[in-house]
User: Fold this.
Amino acid sequence: NAGTIYSRGGNSNISIDAAPFKRFATLDEVEQVNSRGNNWIRYNNGLQLCWVHYVEGNSWWSFPVAFSSTPVVQFTDLTGKWPWVTNISNTGCTHKSDGSGNGFAIGWWK
Assistant:
């Protein structure tokens, strides 16, 4: 099974040690990269990922490249505060928090 991607994870009903491994894809099945740059990557199937390593609280994050529609965005606060996201568009969003954070957006570019 060389080159096959597996994962396993637990939850409140099953410990991670008891969870079976799940097969996701072989390296040949993984989507090919169309293009990439600083903090973004686009796949041939239209999927786009963007990320940022530092954004001040209550500030706008402009995605490095635009999405074709509104993406899903998640922030993690670096100071232990509770972050959330507002004003999500295909070009950016507002990171709402009393502290700084890092963010991730996933969506479609075509």
Summary: The chain has a mean pLDDT of 82. The beta strands are 4-7, 22-26, 33-37, 40-43, 47-55, 59-62, 72-77, 84-86, 92-96, 101-108. The CA atoms of residues 47 and 108 lie 5 Å apart. The chain has no helices and ten strands.
